[in-house]
Fold this sequence. Notes:
Elements: E1 24-26, E2 29-31, E3 69-77, E4 84-92, E5 101-112, H1 119-125, E6 127-128, E7 132-136, H2 140-154, E8 168-172, H3 187-196, E9 214-215, E10 218-219, E11 221-231, E12 234-245, H4 259-262, E13 275-282, H5 288-304, E14 314-327, H6 346-366, E15 370-371, E16 377-378, H7 383-393
Parallel strand pairs: 7-8, 13-14
Antiparallel strand pairs: 1-2, 3-4, 4-7, 5-6, 5-14, 9-10, 11-12, 12-13, 15-16
Amino acid sequence: MQRRNFIKTTLGGFSLLSPKILFLKTQGKYSTEVPKASLERKRARELGIRIGDQAPGPSNAITDVKGVRVGHTTVMKGKGKGAVRTGVTAILPNNGKIYEENLYASYFNLNGWGEMTGIAPLEKTGRLKTPIFLTGTYNVGIVYDAAVDYLTQNFRGLENSEDIAQPIVGECFDDFLSDTKRRMISKEDVFQAIKNARSGPVEEGSVGGGTGMVSFGFKGGIGTSSRIVSIKKDEYTVGVLVMANTASRRQLRIDGLPVGKEIKGFKSRYGKSKSIILIAATDAPLLPFQLKKIAKRVAIGLAQTGATSNTGSGDIILAFSTGNKIPRNLSATFLQTRAINDFWITPLYTATVEATHEAIINALTSARTITGRDGNTAFGLPLDQVKKIIKKYREPGENYFD
């Protein structure tokens, strides 16, 4: 059944995941067994997994890029038919001043099955003018509408300006765990995600737009990571945030190792490959054509996890830089712009690949098991098995884990 098939033939009852008992619907029977290591969640580095050679920032998150803030609203409603497991994530790229001070940005459509609004004007101007929102497919219109309200309420004169702002809203289809047709996101939920936006550590896994997402056959969702880069005498940060809802279990690779093929148990009838939205940010002063190349390196980081961007997958990437603030001054004839020499940006490529790979793994290791509509269950990645599998492939005596 294709990703955009709006008609589902059956909608059965389902149960919520309690802290103690997981109800898994299997051929009409329910099991009360909690899968081992499915409830305690950790980030990849807390498990001792080190991806790449470059060091992460203080929070190992996209918010390590100064001025970038992230907030979530998680929506968990109901039991049985019509229950909802969804949400919205808001990324504020410039301390909430993004309309008044635009940022250079670019976009790469790795596989165009999904949607990201506002991309045509972004590509035309090379500028990011609004916050970025991530949510479920059928929520896009509601989130877009709320974003317009937010912009017009907070940036006076926008409604009369010739330089309009079209919000950026990216989506993945969360129908396995959520009754998507109910569209239970509200404008207040979007405003709350904006209000919740903070710098520092970012909540990951089954939160915000990632609440209903499934990736590599396990519970997916929001993940983030960052890297610190030195170019000549200057230090820069690259951060990536993902909403992961893609790929199959057998594809999963962590730091080059075939982890997905080795995991035992945790059977689920989930088998569809869907989408992933990936957002990259850096404080390195880059121009739009350079940010296009950064966005393409995000795709390499995705590939390192084993994902192959299948036909029904909407894999969309946006990259922006806070290194130049572009005032919305329509009377200005010239703009003061800095840019790194294009011959010196390779370390930023490496940082982008590493941060993307780790962000996706963080989404998996942080996401807890959730049971959604029809009794559908997305299991959290079994972290105990992951450690054993990685240890199996390492050389004897190699100090991979702390």
